[in-house]
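Support case: zinc ion complex. Customer-provided input:
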Amino acid sequence: MKKPALLALALFMSVASAQQEKISYKATEMAPGIVMLEGVGGFAGGNLGLWSGEDGVVLIDDGMQPYLKIMLEAIEAHAGAPVNFVINTHVHGDHIGNNAGMSMQGATIIAHDNIRERLVRDGVTGANGKEPASKHMLPEITFSDGVTLHLNGHRAEVIHVMQAHTDGDAIIFFADADVIHCGDVFFNGLFPYIDLDSGGSVDGYIAALDKILAMAGSKTRIIPGHGPAAAKADLESARDMMMTARDRVRALVAEGKNEDDIVGMNPLADFDADWSWGFITTERMTRTLVRDARPGN
Ligand SMILES: [Zn+2]
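Agent response - structure generated as follows:
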């Protein structure tokens, strides 16, 4: 490469990295009063759901701590009022990073029992490693199987799905508005992160996708945990891909192949172009499937 080309490349790279810091939220209306907020311009955490109307404002997940101000501006622009309730879809920091910030502004946090338990027991990862979760981060209302909110002329069912992405996942089903927020039980067009160390499992993940599919119709608007707004067909491809991937890897584990051999054989090669991404590469997905397939993983 000649010098001017190198300089141009260096300039491009620095512009690209400056761009990474330019986070904003893109809003997509899913139904009247229900908006999906998706971080753009860099990684801003999971997709948010914003539900507003005459009775109040509900936020589904609250993103990552550094982007609190940007998130509040987006909420103000699209809801025009402060948040009354925050629903946590699961325990990961890119989804509940602003629990404390929202709680201190008067919001009540609702989450599965296991999210509160994990936060109390394990704390959170902060700038200096693990630290105890402050009381403001902890959900004030917890549930085991589910809870239903009746607000703004709609009904939102918060439904726990067992051992899927973690052991504290919830999906939010707006039956009459025909919208579903899936949390990280659905990564649209991306290999999913299945957090085996936090109680997730591959079979649970697939069962959760099947459960959501049973609720969805051809017109249902779907908010994934990550990736663009989706329709039922996108959910079906994610489920089909996961079943095929699981079965291929399980067959190799059953033959007695070890993890590195299986990675070398690359049984997910044909999924690489469509599903692999920076966080969950084809290799990482394969290793998760191997680990999940082993008895007593
Ligand atoms: Zn997650």
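The longest strand covers residues 24-31.

Case will auto-close in a few days if no follow-up is received.
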